[in-house]
Amino acid sequence: MKRITFAALIFAAFPVIAQVTVKDPWVRATVPAMKATGAFMQITSAQDARLVEVKSPVAGIVEIHEMAMDKDVMKMRALPDGLALPAGKAVELKSGGYHVMLMDLKQQMKEGDIVPVTLVIEGKDKKRSTIEVKAPVKPLAAPGKMEAEHKHSH
After folding, report:
1. Among 107, 109, 106, 92, which Cα is nearest to 145's?
2. Nearest of 98, 24, 109 to residue 64 by alpha carbon
3. pLDDT digit string (tens) for 124-152?
4. Mean pLDDT value across residues 104-132
5. Has residue 72 got a pLDDT over 70?
6. 71-104 burial: b if 16+ Cβ within 10 Å, else e
7. Closest by Cα among 20, 22, 6 to 123
8. Which residue in 117, 119, 116 sits closest to 130, CA to CA?
9. pLDDT value at 3 more than 60
10. If residue 57 lies in a helix (H) or strand (E), which one and from where to where?
11. Element housing 28 (H / E)
């Protein structure tokens, strides 16, 4: 009887957090003078949630951005309210779409380096959880999926 009560207390103290998976994280390499780069990955949440913040020790400023076409102009803007993660749907952070901007870089991002990235996820209940991601740095010329499709369509 005591074990059941103890187990119930543990679950009450640690609410079940929405299961979130991250696939294929990576960061684009930089040249020495560059002070910004992008981080890309695919995020899937089992329940409706939001990516509300991203942190990394390699950057002074980290923001969640959206790149979109406005008439014939590509515009990039920060998403101050975060990015929706609809239940069961993979949200792709990629070049030319949603992505993470790492700005005020503290060092050059070199191919083969591993960049620690912390994702802050907020559930519908407003409870927040963090996911630690290790993102490898890929070459500066690494095409995003959209760029690769564009190059092959000609």
Report:
1. 92
2. 98
3. 999 999 999 999 999 977 655 443 333 33
4. 95
5. yes
6. eeeeeeeeeeebbebeeeeebbbbbebbbbbbee
7. 20
8. 119
9. no
10. none
11. strand 20-28
Whole-prediction pTM: 0.79
CA distance 77 to 68: 9
In angstroms, the Cα distances linking 152 to 55, 72, 84 are: 34, 22, 30
pLDDT at res. 75? 87
Backbone angle region of 43, left / alpha / beta, with phi > 0 → left and psi within -120 to 50 → alpha: beta
For 148, which DSSP code? H
- Using the Cα atoms of residue 140, residue 143, residue 145 and residue 147 in order, give the sign of their dihedral: positive
Instruction: Give the pLDDT band (50/70/90) at residue 154.
Output: very low
Please name the residues in contact with 23: beta carbons below 8 A apart, sequence gap of 6 or more: 41, 42, 43, 44, 90
Joined tokens for residue 77 = 């803007």
Domains and CATH numbers, the chain: 15-136 (2.60.40.1890)
